[in-house]
Amino acid sequence: MGLFNGLFGKNDGESKKEEKTIPWISLTSLDQLNEIEENSKTKTQVIFKHSTTCGISRMTMNMFKSGYDFSADEIDLYYLDLLAYREVSNETGYKFQVLHQSPQLLVIRNTTVVAHTSHGAIAELDLKKYV
């Protein structure tokens, strides 16, 4: 049995890798877009648009999460499930003048998108430049 447990990832002697906690704020309403715009005057606002049915989106989100190293005091980080909140996703593009992509990351400062990217380039974006 020990052999099978080791092969399939169960090993009681090893400590499990602790998953990093990300301070996500769920973006679920159109009103929040106005709040994001207003709050961007004093604090960096970031929107992560994610497709829950897309493997590339899931992989990108995992890479983003592993490199995310900011406190809630530095950045407001919004998570948008674009399939569940399609209207919010569409309005995000209109409001901030960014063509929709999935997955996609938008960085908003002083009411304007100062950076945006999609797919694998999300993990490469240096958010420190915008804090």
Task: Tag the structure with descriptive keywords.
131 residues, alpha/beta, Glutaredoxin, 5-stranded mixed β-sheet, 5 strands, 23% strand, globular
Question: Can you walk through the features of this model?
Answer:
- The chain has five helices and five strands.
- The protein has 131 residues and is α/β, with parallel strands linked by helices.
- 24% of the residues are buried.
- The mean pLDDT is 89.
Quick summary of this structure?
The chain is α/β, with parallel strands linked by helices and 131 residues long. The protein is built from five helices and five strands, in the order H-E-H-E-H-E-H-E-E-H.
Number of strands: 5
* Helix share, percent: 25-40%
Q: What is the tally of helical segments?
A: 5
Distance between the termini: 51 Å
Give the H and E element order.
Answer: HEHEHEHEEH
The whole-angstrom Rg is 17 Å
Shape: globular
Structural category is: alpha/beta
The biggest beta sheet reads: 5 strands, mixed
Low-confidence stretches: none
CATH architecture: 3-Layer(aba) Sandwich
| Proportion of residues in extended strands | 15-25%
What fold name goes in the CATH topology slot? Glutaredoxin
What is the highest CATH level, the class? Alpha Beta
Provide mean pLDDT, rounded: 89
Spatial sequence of strands, sheet with the most strands:
1-3-2-4-5
Chain oligomer state? single chain
